[in-house]
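Researcher: Quick test of sequence recovery. Tokens follow.
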């Protein structure tokens, strides 16, 4: 179902622990606003998006296509036919408090949604993750650009990893994203092969979506003799506006037979 006008679905304002293969600092902050599907492409209906926070903080989210190099703009999810805007700020964590994302539409309408970000969940997850980081990274399967054995089915591929709870740490939620590509640089956020959308699963009535999830079965067929890259994001919630921390774990690669 599409909408004639822009409607905010949900927002995120949360800290990010950026453990990607990247020169960017690990301590970051993320703003995200997702929209219901619209009859025309949502970016054509948006004039300006501004995020505001404590102590007069303000930053604009650009109305441009998000890329790994600009980390600022919109992403189109073809699986659900909707757009979401994201801005990753590699300038450190932002303080807890109330954050608001304000959307000005081309028709003059102004939309706002707010949430309160808390620090305690960030500290708990980051502490546990950094303590067990090497064990977790070594647990991913498939990984390390391995060639999957001949005869491996290209449907219902199973991917596994250790959770923080497995290692005596706190409960958390896990989001898996898969794309074609030989490396983290080739991972295409705009063209995912499949992802485990725990936010939609939660909205559709599964309050435990992603909770302590240490494996997924890929819900899309894979291509033969093709390199793939995936990463698993760790969060403290499975609703966007309840999330205080996202941990972006290192990309893993494999090649299908």
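Model:
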């Amino acid at each position: 179902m599409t909408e004639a006008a822009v409607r905010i679905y949900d927002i995120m304002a949360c800290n990010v622990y950026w453990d990607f293969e990247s020169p960017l600092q690990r301590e970051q902050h993320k703003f995200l606003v997702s929209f219901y599907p619209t009859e025309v492409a949502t970016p054509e209906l948006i004039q300006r998006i501004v995020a505001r926070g404590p102590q007069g903080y303000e930053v604009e989210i650009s109305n441009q296509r998000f890329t790994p190099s600009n980390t600022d703009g919109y992403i189109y999810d073809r699986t659900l036919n909707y757009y979401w805007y994201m801005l990753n700020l590699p300038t450190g964590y932002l303080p807890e408090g109330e954050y608001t994302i304000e959307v000005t539409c081309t028709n003059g309408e102004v939309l706002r949604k707010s949430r309160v970000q808390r620090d305690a969940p960030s500290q708990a997850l980051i502490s546990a993750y950094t303590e067990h980081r090497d064990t977790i990274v070594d647990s991913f399967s498939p990984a390390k650009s391995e060639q999957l054995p001949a005869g491996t089915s290209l449907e219902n591929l199973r991917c596994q990893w250790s959770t923080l709870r497995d290692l005596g740490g706190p409960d958390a939620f896990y989001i898996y994203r898969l794309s074609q590509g030989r490396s983290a640089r080739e991972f295409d956020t705009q063209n995912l092969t499949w992802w485990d959308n725990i936010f939609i699963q939660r909205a559709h009535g599964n309050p435990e979506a992603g909770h302590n999830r240490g494996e997924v079965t890929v819900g899309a067929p894979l291509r033969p003799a093709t390199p793939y890259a995936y990463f698993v994001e760790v969060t403290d919630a499975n609703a966007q506006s309840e999330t205080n921390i996202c941990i972006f774990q290192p990309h893993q690669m494999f090649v299908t037979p």
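The longest strand covers residues 8-18.
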